[in-house]
Design a protein that fits this description.
two-stranded parallel sheet, 11 helices, seven-stranded parallel β-sheet, alpha/beta
Length: 342
């Protein structure tokens, strides 16, 4: 489908954390002739060679196949994290909406689908060593986010069997951060009224050290580079994406000048569950349970087959993100709108 004018790439969720980074990258790509950004709300932001289409994936009446017609690749990033108290709503957007995307890719005969899976799709695994892409992807069933990501892995298994001519790539990134996503992620996980000033070192004399809280992070721009490479290459299958080293309480405490204090899992979970039950905290205790069980990921395949590696360490990623929290950083799209509280 490529032409002398360059490739046509469609990106769902184009105004979100990963979407803004990827659209910016594709807009500067000499191999790309046009980018079609899909989002529920059209932004004022106007990158080069980019056109916007208002789409709600939860709506059954959306003509996705018509939108995808003539595309060289569809990159599916759209995802709804909330409301965590109403998993049926997120299921309609995340699972049923994604399956509409997959069906439309096949109907429009798009040759490549790059799907945003996640470390959250993985079954519980080790924290002492890393696992590769063959680790089971059954998620943590109590957490809606993991349950939905894992279900879509099975849906893609069926899709690949039924449509072998479509090149399917599954990206499984670690937790993604950038300065511009700070306000959005504070709202999603900490709540609208959580003060960004809490990221200031002088306000955190100690930091809870919870057994099992050892995860990986990645700068969103680094993830976007991997998506771009997947679009232009002929790779198939899953790719782990993460920075080094893993993030734990000791690293965070060192960054914030705080003292790590051991806190039992049960005490931390009880506090989170109480706040979530009172609708004071958007992040559910079920997601907390999942995070404590996520495996560390080996990214060797991305290095050897995509020729990708993270450009920033996890500490650099978090330092930038925390600065963004303190400053109420954001971007000129509805999901990433900056909002400083406190």
């Amino acid at each position: 489908m490529s032409s002398e004018a360059g490739r046509r790439i469609v990106v769902t969720g184009a105004t979100g954390n990963v979407g803004t980074s990827l659209v910016s990258l594709l807009a500067q790509d000499s191999e790309v002739g046009s980018v079609v950004g899909l989002a529920r709300r059209i932004p004022d932001w106007s990158p080069a060679r980019t056109q916007w289409t208002a789409v709600d994936l939860a709506s059954q009446g959306t003509d996705l196949a018509g939108t995808f017609e003539g595309a060289d690749a569809v990159v599916h990033l759209a995802w709804a994290f909330q409301p965590t108290h109403d998993p049926a709503t997120t299921w309609r957007t995340n699972v049923l909406g994604s399956m509409r995307v997959f069906e439309a890719v096949a109907a429009a005969k798009v040759p490549a689908l790059v799907h945003a899976s996640s470390v959250g799709a993985y079954s519980p695994g080790p924290k002492e060593h890393a696992v590769d892409e063959s680790w089971p992807t059954h998620g943590w069933p109590d957490a809606a986010y993991c349950r939905e990501k894992a279900y879509l892995e099975r849906a893609l298994d069926s899709f690949e069997h039924e449509h072998p001519g479509v090149r399917v790539v599954r990206m499984r990134p670690a937790f993604l951060f950038k300065r511009e996503s700070a306000s959005e992620q504070r709202r999603i996980f900490g709540g609208r009224f959580l003060p960004g000033s809490l990221a200031r070192p002088e306000l955190l004399p100690f930091l809870p050290d919870i057994p099992g809280l050892r995860v990986q992070a990645l700068h969103t721009d680094d993830a976007a580079r991997a998506y771009r490479l997947a679009v232009h290459s002929q790779v198939r299958g899953a790719f782990n994406l993460a920075s080094e080293p893993p993030v734990d309480a000791r690293m965070l405490a060192g960054m914030l000048g705080a003292r790590p204090v051991r806190l039992p899992r049960t005490a931390a979970r009880s506090a989170i569950a109480a706040a979530w039950g009172l609708h004071l905290l958007p992040a559910s205790p079920h997601l907390f349970d999942a995070v404590l069980r996520l495996p560390l990921m080996d990214c060797s395949r991305a290095r050897t087959e995509l020729h990708w590696q993270a450009g920033r360490t996890s500490q650099e990623v978090l330092e930038e993100f925390l600065q963004g929290m303190r400053q109420g950083a954001g971007a000129d799209t509805a999901p990433l709108q900056g909002h400083k509280v406190g």
